[in-house]
Design goal:
Layout: H1 2-21, E1 27-30, H2 32-41, E2 47-49, H3 53-57, E3 65-66, H4 74-78, E4 87-90, H5 95-106, E5 112-115, H6 118-125
Parallel strand pairs: 1-5, 2-3, 2-4, 4-5
Amino acid sequence: MRQLAFFISSFFLIFLFISCSNPIEGIEVLTCKEFDNKLQDAKQQQLIDVRTPEEYSAGTINSAINIDFYSEDFKKNINTLDKKSAVFVFCAKGGRSNSASKILKEEGFKVIYDLEGGYNAWVLYKK
């Protein structure tokens, strides 16, 4: 019985590790330096801050536009963007932007760059 419980828990942990570490094609999670470099090289900047308007007004990256992830119009608002051009997305720490990146992918965006660590990491990077 112990061996069975150990086997099941081991299998579950391996499955969880594989599913969490498996990247989604078209979504790249970038360090601040990588994000900055890609942003500077982009022909068209679609920089999206998915934090709340209050967070956005306290400071953001360059010319980012605010599309609040929690807004009921989130999908409608992201669908006004060019799906053929790269989209750069960030939030405060990386959780909302990860979820937003998946929605962007579902909505047909081809190239999505997600800022690892979010705006909080960006502020430290730019010091």
